[in-house]
């Protein structure tokens, strides 16, 4: 086998990928981890994590991921800072190609590609992306010190982002399309008791408004539509944070593996096995229901154990 052949290839980092790496490394399977476009995954753009067991005072997402990376490296897992953009699971060993076109082969693959932020789909949102429109309060909140911002969404992420942004912004308008929140009661109560957060319920952004001067662009407001009255009103503000959920990063596996309508990979019940023996899926790429850091880590552990047992069966 070539230098580019591995027994275990893990695509993607995050709690799922790192936990899979930890277990397979400790089983002397020398896993290789492709870190992908966002090394560390979604927790790299998360503020304090208060619901990952073991951290009494909570821990920041980036610190948790850096600690996980160091832990797996201690046992010999090897990170490659490239993104897998193409696979061929039709023949064995499985083939994978990175974004530079380099080919790798592997006896087993653990898919831990996670999910990416979704956007509203407005042309004006795209126009001002990175110029006032963001999906990451931790990354960009700092730029809105003393300014007015909006957060879109009714889930825990939107609540967390809204609260976090009050540390920087003078006012946060939380926009949700229904008048009931999907987020947990604790998070909603925290938002409702924060005097800097105003609510715009049963409302959606109809248009992002801004100014352009050559290459310079900036958001100056939004056209906010009240879904109950149909009224559209201009709200002046400086930044918009979209927190409306995520889409699994599974496009490259289309045609090889089964997935649901949204793109979540389908695995056998109570296991991480896909329909192809030797290919396993864990974390947010296959979990549309729980989607927690701790459940991702749990399924990463399951994938590693499934890989170990699969390799044992090959030995006979
Ligand atoms: P969710 O899927 O839970 O929520 C997405 C929100 O966006 C919903 O309120 C949804 O509205 C709204 N939405 C979706 N599409 C649109 C659209 N096109 N226009 C307007 N609004 C839209 O995603 P989250 O990212 O909030 O959370 C994902 C998971 O992560 C959850 O399980 C959550 O509990 C967990 N999480 C936990 C945290 C913590 O405990 N610290 C922090 C962050 C996330 P509607 O409700 O009408 O469908």
Write up what this structure looks like.
The chain is α/β, with parallel strands linked by helices. It has 2 domains: about 180 residues, FAD/NAD(P)-binding domain (3-Layer(bba) Sandwich); about 120 residues, FAD/NAD(P)-binding domain. The strands form 5 sheets. Strands 1, 2, 5, 6, 7, 8 and 19 form a 7-stranded mixed sheet that branches. A 5-stranded parallel sheet has the order 10-17-11-12-13, with helices on one face. Strands 14-15-16 form a 3-stranded antiparallel sheet. Helix 1 runs parallel beside helix 7 and helix 5 runs parallel beside helix 6. The site of NADPH dihydro-nicotinamide-adenine-dinucleotide phosphate has 19 residues, from helix 5.
Précis, in short:
The chain is α/β, with parallel strands linked by helices. It has helices at 15-26, 61-74, 123-127, 137-140, 156-165, 185-192, 293-315, and strands spanning 5-11, 32-34, 48-49, 59-60, 78-80, 84-88, 94-98, 103-111, 115-117, 133-134, 148-152, 171-175, 197-200, 203-213, 216-226, 232-236, 239-242, 246-248, 279-281.
């Amino acid at each position: 086998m070539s230098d580019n052949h591995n027994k275990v290839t893990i695509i993607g980092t995050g709690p799922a990928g790192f936990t899979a790496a930890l277990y397979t490394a400790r089983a002397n399977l020398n896993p290789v981890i492709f870190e992908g476009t966002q090394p560390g995954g979604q927790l790299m753009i998360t503020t304090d994590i208060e619901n990952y067991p073991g951290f009494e005072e909570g821990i920041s997402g980036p610190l948790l991921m850096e600690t996980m990376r160091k832990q797996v490296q201690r046992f010999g897992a090897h990170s490659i800072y490239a993104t897998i953009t193409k696979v061929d699971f039709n023949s064995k060993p499985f083939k994978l190609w990175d974004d530079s076109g380099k080919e790798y082969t592997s006896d087993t693959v653990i898919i831990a590609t996670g999910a990416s932020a979704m956007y509203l789909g407005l042309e004006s949102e795209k126009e001002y992306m990175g110029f006032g429109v963001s999906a990451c309060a931790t990354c960009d909140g700092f730029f809105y010190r003393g300014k007015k911002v909006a957060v879109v969404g009714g889930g825990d992420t939107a609540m967390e982002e809204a609260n976090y942004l009050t540390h920087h912004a003078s006012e946060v308008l939380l926009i949700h399309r229904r008048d009931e929140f999907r987020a947990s009661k604790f998070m909603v109560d925290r938002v409702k008791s924060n005097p800097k957060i105003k609510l715009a319920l049963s409302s959606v952004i109809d248009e992002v408004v801004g100014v352009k001067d050559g290459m310079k662009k900036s958001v100056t407001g939004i056209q906010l539509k009240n879904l109950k009255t149909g009224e559209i009103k201009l709200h002046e503000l400086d930044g918009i944070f979209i927190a409306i959920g995520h889409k699994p990063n599974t496009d490259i596996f289309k045609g090889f593996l089964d997935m649901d309508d949204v793109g979540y990979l389908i695995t056998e019940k109570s296991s991480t096995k896909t329909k192809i023996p030797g290919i396993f899926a864990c974390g947010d790429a296959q979990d549309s229901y729980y989607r927690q850091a701790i459940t991702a880590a749990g399924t990463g552990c399951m994938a590693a154990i499934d890989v170990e047992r699969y390799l044992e069966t090959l030995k006979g």
